[in-house]
Amino acid sequence: MFRTLTVLVENNPGVLTRVASLFSRRGYNIDSLAVGQTENPSISRMTIVVEEGDKVIEQVTKQLHKLIDVIKVSDITEEEYVDRELILIKTDADPSVRGEIMQIVEIFRARIVDIGQNTLTIEATGDEGKIRAIIEALRPFRIRELVRTGKIAMLRGSRFNTVENGN
Amino acid sequence: MKQSGAQILIKCLEEEKVRAIFGYPGGAVLDIYDALYDSSLKHFLVRHEQGAAHAADGYARATGKPGVCLATSGPGATNLVTGLANAYMDSIPMVAFTGQVATHMIGRDSFQEADIYGITLPITKHNFLVKDVKELPRVVKESFHLATTGRPGPVLIDLPKDVCQEKTDLKYPKVSQLRGYRPVLDGHPEKISEAAAAITGARRPVICAGGGAISSGSSEVLRQLAELCAIPVTTTLMGKGVFPENHPLSLGMLGMHGTKYANYAVNECDLLITIGARFSDRVTVRADAFAPKARIIHIDIDPAEIGKNVQVDIPIVGDVKRVLEQLCQVVQARTETEEWSAKIREWKDKYPLRYHHNGKIKPQFVIEQIYEVTGGNAIIATEVGQNQMWAAQFYTFTKPRTFISSGGLGTMGFGLPAAIGAQIGRPGETVFNIAGDGSIQMNIQELATAADYKLPLKVAILNNNYLGMVRQWQDIFYNGRLAYSDISGPDYVKLAEAYGAVGMQVTRPEDVRRALQKAMQVEDRPVLIDFLVDRKENVFPMIPPEGTISKMLEE
To answer: Do B329 and B403 sit in the same domain of this protein?
Structure first.
């Protein structure tokens, strides 16, 4: 099953390598990994989606904790959270099907951000379900290129995943 | 007063009360060596950087203090790699310094450049590449803190040449502050009571103590717990010496080449208390069939070890010594102890470790003689393979930090440099390196180091002209097809003499003792004794890989 981990790390050079090599060395599968600076410039936050069973996830969490540069690891899969991913899709779109594609884009509240002679480039953001759905909807038109940022996530309400307000 | 990075480094090492550095100079560390030249720090010049890493490791194992080694950039640094991996697998506190090309040269494939930071990521507890001399004191402070606390391990600091030359003011921090590193030391009280109740209620308990029991200094309290509750104690290879092996409750070592009675006890026990050990495959052999009738208590400082290889019932994360102290305060003595004790005694009487004399020198006999000649008081380093297993089986260890052996990584060539480190760390003591003729040739150059510093250590080669453990496996599992395990060696007597050591060769059992006694008389240089042993002797008992106790092979 897919689990979503939120990992706060020191914003040190090499920290991404440490995390990535831990996954490859121990044979854990990463589905996606997104990383960037947080409200505190000395701390970066990674959102890692892992496809593993409970026992392996426990090991993943513990092994991540063991890295000195890792400050905090939370498995938020069972929590209430907001998650988003941004994708860009370049699809075949000769003039005869453009109208249909634009309707799909409308339905998903996505945007057309570029147009080529026979292609359209679509930007969409959303949670996992929506992203999956729009990809499926566009697949019949022949997706030529797809790029995604990986999922980012944040707990809902007044609960925090920060160093100061750790829960 | 402004000082160079190199001078600051040496000052920091003095602050950390470092007594010995094992190293080898080269281009990128010339500034550090220049600063060392003015310092009272003792530097030991090895003959190969791998020797420096193993010597620092042996020093740490023998003394409990962090071992320090130093090598230049590129090949110097990569030569440390095996030594770091070895220390990491066995959780040995070490701080390694490597030179690096100047910061503006990094990434350009400069002369003697290697990405040692990247290379050592998975084989160090933590590592640093220092890019600004102002960070250096903090990095050194953090490195020693990381290496020696929590689950110990090696830390590497990569030092570009310009950082060593740059000048700044030294402010050595008093404490290190790492928000991502806070080892849990005290055991959770609820788990402690749960464990105490399980111990009191157990009919057939066994303690299995590992290297963590030694590194936390738990010998005394372990013995207290075992005696209070009449619990037999087995140890892993790494745990040897933490519990006196001549104690009635001792079961010796368990695992693939463990005693039959230790393995029987673990197989039949209803409660296994694993202390500072990690259920390695050489201990469990088959993890899913290990201690099949037992509830398991696992005490370890590293939470990631809990449930990694074997599922446990009562996990206690904390410093082993503190947890055992907590446990001793609340545990009630067991009442019905006699039945289990009698069973253990029966196994011990029925299945002792043994071998048969046949007129040739038996390697086990050599070990027993070393035990007798040293009164059991020596520090024993080993190489890896049959020599290591026989040393573990036939020398009776009674004190912690006296058995120095590469457990996890199984590094041939470890023993001689480790013995050098141990001898330097504990100069008054008798240090033996028990070696095979294969292993000794892997770092034989360090005999020059030992001779140079007039170290009176003794090397006992159990020479069978084979890579003995390989040959044993080929004989048992590969139909005796001895592919490339038949190995020759030099004339060790001449070799020893060429290095400035004393060389002896022994070919008959009746001369073993005399040679050892003669070796004990030598105090100003190393002694190497070449024992020509029975070539075909095997290490038994042996549980074959993936096998269980019912598949145990015996003599």
So the answer is: no
For B260, B342, B395, the CA distances from B253, given in Å and listed in that order, are 9, 19, 11
Residues B128 and B258 in one domain: no
| Nearest Cα residue in chain A from B131 | A13
B158 within some domain: yes
Q: What percent of chain B has pLDDT over 90?
A: 97
pLDDT tens digits, one per residue of B47-66: 999 999 999 999 999 999 99
Question: Is residue B24 located within the same domain as residue B165?
Answer: yes
Residues B328 and B201 in one domain: yes
CB contact under 8 A, B302 and A10: no
CA–centroid distance for A98 within its chain: 29
**Are B292 and B163 members of one domain?**
no
The one-character DSSP state at B543 is P
List the structure tokens of B466. 């084979």
Q: List C-alpha distances in Å: B367 to A144, B196, B306, B373, B397.
A: 71, 39, 36, 10, 12
Chain A positions in Cβ-Cβ contact with residue B125 (cut-off 8 Å): 68
Q: Which of A24, A63, A68 to probe the B interface (max B CBs under 10 A)? A: A68
Closest by CA position to B282, among listed B110, B89, B32 = B89
In a domain, B554, yes or no: no
Q: Give yes or no: residues B143 and B196 share one domain.
A: no
The CATH H-level superfamily of A83-152 is ACT-like. Chain A, domain 2 (3.30.70.1150)
Residues in chain A closer than 8 A to B117 (CB atoms):
14
Range of the domain at B251: 189-350
Per-domain boundaries in chain A: 2-75, 83-152
Per-residue pLDDT tens over the stretch B346-394: 999 999 999 999 999 999 999 999 999 999 999 999 999 999 999 999 9
What's the pTM value of the predicted model, to 2 decimals?
A: 0.95
B539: its two tokens = 């290490």
Q: Do domains A2-75 and A83-152 have the same CATH topology?
A: yes
Q: Burial, A106: exposed, middle or buried (Cβ in 10 Å; 0-12, 13-18, 19+)?
A: exposed
Q: Is B555 inside a domain boundary?
A: no
Interface with A, mutate which of B121, B184, B317 (most A CBs under 10 A) = B121
pLDDT at B95 over 60: yes
Count up the domains in chain B and report the number: 3
- The pLDDT of B479-508, averaged and rounded, is 98
**Burial B28-46, CB ≥16 within 10 A → b, else e:** bbbbbbebbeeeeeebbeb
Distance (Å, rounded) from C-alpha B143 to C-alpha B141? 5
Mean per-residue pLDDT for B178-198? 97
Q: Do B213 and B330 fall into the same domain?
A: yes
- Average pLDDT (B313-324) is 98
Asked if the C-beta of B278 comes within 8 angstroms of chain A's C-beta atoms, the answer is: no
Residues of B designated catalytic = 49, 111-112, 161, 469
Chain segment B329-351, per-residue pLDDT in tens: 999 999 999 999 999 999 999 99
Spell out the CATH class of A2-75: alpha beta
Verify that B148 and B224 share a domain, yes or no: no
* Per-residue pLDDT reduced to its tens digit, B254-278: 999 999 999 999 999 999 999 999 9
The answer to whether the CB atoms of B178 and A55 lie below 8 A apart is no
Comparing A47-51, B143-147, B173-177, the range with the smallest average pLDDT is: B173-177
> CB A17 to CB B121 under 8 A?
yes
